Amino acid sequence: MPDADTPEPPLNSSHMTLAKKAELIKKWADNKQKHVRKKRDKNSHVYWYMQREAIEGSFYSEYKDGPKIFQEFRWTCIECLQNPSTLRKRFQVLESNRRGVTSGMGDHLKIHRITKESHYARINGYGRAIGGGDYTEADAWSGRPRQRARLTAKESIRRWFVKHRQPFSVVETPAFQEMFLAHNTTCAYRSRITLRNHIHTDFVERREKLKIEFEYNCSTISFTLDIWTAPNRVPIFAIIAHWITPEFEEREEVIEFIELQESHTGEQLAKIVESTLEELRLKPKLLAITGDNAGNNGTLCQSLYDSLKTKFDDKVSPIGRPRMRFHGRKSWIRCLAHITSLICEGVLQDLKAGTAKEAKKMLDKWDEENKSNNYTIPGDSSRSGIAKIRLLNLWILRSGPREQDFKSMPRTHYRKPIYDVDTRWNSAYDMIDQFLELEAEYTEFVDTHPQVKCLLPLSEEIVALYQLRKVLKPFKDHTLKVSEAMPPISQSLDIYWDLEALLDDVVEGVGDFADLDMSIRNAFSKGKAKHITYMKKLDDQMMLFAAHILDPRYKTHQLEMMIPDQYSEIMAKVKKYFKTEWPGLARLNATNSTMSQSRPAERPQGVSIAQWRAIEMKKAKEAEAGAAIPISELERWFATPRIEFDESIAKSPDFLRKWWKEHKGEWPLLAAAARDLLSVSGSEVDVERLFSGCRDEFGIRRQALKADTVRVLTLLRSAYTREDNVDQTLIKAAMEYDILPFANSIIWRPDHIPGKLVDGENPPPQPPAPAEVPTEAPTGAPAEPPTPKPPASQTDKSAISTPYPDTMEVSED
C-alpha cells in the first residue's frame, strides 16, 4: 500500500488553545502512522546461504544524488566457498548492485539444488533427495540413503488432528481424502476408528516417555492449576508442570486434564494431584503449587502435605526417611494476576459498579413483567454510571434490530457493544473505554431509542468515568504484563512493590492522579488495604525472597532498600531456608578454612632476619584477609558485588536462566537452587490460556465428546507442542553448524544486524567469528558429521575482497 498523503493539521486558527493544538497534532501523527508502510523483514531463503562482509572505505547512496549514504557490502555464496569448483565462478554481488533484490541470488542457488521449496522442507526437518547431504539416512533394508523425515505420514496426520482439534470423522470425508489424491498420493488413514486407536496408543507411549524425562531431566517440579467449567457443563481440573533441565532450558507440559466427579473441595483436589504425582513418580520432586486465591487451593496444599508426610519427611531425616520438597501452605504461590484482579474488583464494588450477572437478572425480570422487550427502562437514582453503561449494552445486544441500529453509524459499523465479564475485571475497563470513545454514537442511539434514555450517563458521571478510565489504565497494563510474561517468582517481589507504589500514588493523589475525585481515591484505599493483606502473607514464603536474592542484578540490595525495617529478620529466615532446602550450602569451603592454618616455613639461608620478618608479616596479613573471606558458597554470594547491567538486560525475560547456565560451574550449589526456583511460576495464567483454547474442543457438534477423550487429546497436544519446539531448535542449530562456519555472516535475521550508516557515524564493527561447537541432531536423526573448514584462502576476509569493488566481476546465474 503506498504511503498516504495525510494533510498537516490546520494550526493557523488563532482561537485554538495550545492544548487543542497539541491534541490535534497527536491525532494527525497517529493517523499518519497508520498509513506509513512498515519496513519488511528480510525473510527470503537466500540469506541462509549468503555471507555478507563490509567493504571498508566504500559507500553508496540510496538514490542517485540522494542524501542517505550507506555502507557497501559484498555478498558471497557460502555453498561456493564450501565446495569450490574450477569450472564455476564464485558467486559474489555488491549491495549497491542488487539493491535488496534476491532474484539473482535465488537463481544462483538453484545450481546448488537449493530452492525455496527444498529450503522450507529442510528447516522443518525433511531432507533433500538421495545424495542431498546431512538430512538423509540409510534405509533399514537396502542400506541406501533415503530422504530424512522428521515425522512419518501417519505421525503427521495424527498430529494434525490432535493439534487442530478436528473430529476423527473428518478423515472419512471424501473432501479430505481428495486433498491427498490431488497431491498424487493417498492418505495413510481412511478409518476414524483406526485413527482414534493409534492416537490413544501414541498417548500411552508419550506418557512413558514423560516419566523418563522427569526421572533424568527434572530435579524439582512446580505446578500451575485451576478449575474450569466446559461449555457442556463438565467441570475440568487442569495441571501444568514446569521444570528446568540440567542445561537450564525451560520445559512445561499439561500433565492432567480430568473431569471432576465429586465436589470441588481442597481434599478432593489433593487426591487428584497426589494420584498424578504417584503415576509420574514425582512425589519427592514437587516444590510448589501456583493457583488463584480461592480457599480450596490452600486446603489442597495442606491436605496434600499431610498425605505425603506419612511417607516422606520435608527436611533431611536423621533416620533416613525419603525427603520431599513440598511444605504445604508455605509452598502455595498466589497468582499475581489474580491479586491485581481482586484489588480492582474491590474498587469497582465500592464504586457500586454492580455485575453483569445482576444486570442480566434485572433485564430478565423486566422482560417477564412487560411480556415484551419494547418497554421503557425504569430509572434509578442509585444506579452508577458503570451500571448504566452495562445495562445499555446488554439491552442493545438482546435484540437483533437494535444491534443493527447501533452498527448503522460510521464508527460503529464493525464494532459490538462490550459488557464486562464478572471474572475479568479488565473487561469493565474495556466497556468504559468503548463508551467514552463512542460517546457521540451512544448519545445518537439513545435519542432514537427513548425507552433507554435513563441509561445515558449524566455529564458529571461522564467526568467521573474519564477519571476512572485514567486510573484503571495502569492497572490493566499491569495485569496484561503479568499475564503475557508469566514471570517466575524471582520477579514476584518487584511486581508486588510496583503495585504498592501505584496504589500509593492513586490514594495520595500524586502526579497524574492529583485531580482524582475523592470517592475514587477512597475506593482505592480499600484496594490498598487488600494489597497489604497479601503482602503480609509473604513473610512465610521464603521461596520468593530466596529466588529474588539469586538474581545477580539485585542480590540483597533491593531488599535492604525496600524493606529496611524487616531486612535483618528476612535475611535470617532466608539463610535458614537456603541451608534447609539445599544442605550443601551449609558446608564450609575447606580450601579457605585451612588457608590460615598452614605452618610457616623456616627462614631460608641467605635471607636476613629483617627481610624474613617482613615476609612473615605479609603472610600473616594475607592469612588474616583469607580468614575473613566467606567460607561457604552462600556467604560468598552475599559478599560479592552485584553485576552491572543496562536497560536491555533488565528487560530480558531469559536473562536469569541464561546467566545461571553460564555460571553454574562457578556457583554449583547455588545453581542447583536457582534451577529449582526458576521453575516456579508467579501466576497461573497459562492454565487460563489452556481453558480458552479448549472451548473449541466442545463445539456445537461435539457436546457429547467424552471427558476421557478430551483428556487424551489435551495431554497429547501439549506433548506434541513441546516436541515440535525442541525439534525446531535442534534443526535450526544443526543447519547453523552445517551452513555457517564463517566469520562476518549475516544469515538468520539480516534486518536486525547493524549494516546501515547513520549520518556522522563510523561504519559498524563486524561481529567475531562464531565458535564451532557440535550441535545435537534432532531426535532420531543420525549424528551430524563435522563440517569441513574451507581453505584459508576462502575464509580469509582479504582473500575475497578487491581494491576496487565497483569494478568487481559479478556473476548472477
Automatic annotation (TrEMBL):
Alphabetized SUPFAM superfamilies for the sequence: Ribonuclease H-like
Species this chain originates from: Hirsutella minnesotensis 3608
Transmembrane portions of the chain: none
A GO molecular-function annotation: protein dimerization activity
Chain segments carrying region Disordered: 755-813
InterPro entries for this protein: HATC_C_dom, RNaseH-like_sf, ZnF_BED_domain_contain
A matching Pfam family: Dimer_Tnp_hAT
Bias (Pro residues) ranges: 762-771
Ranges of biased composition (kind: Low complexity): 772-782
Name of the molecule in the record: HAT C-terminal dimerisation domain-containing protein
Stretches assigned to coiled coil: none
Sequence ranges assigned to domain HAT C-terminal dimerisation in this UniProt record: 633-718
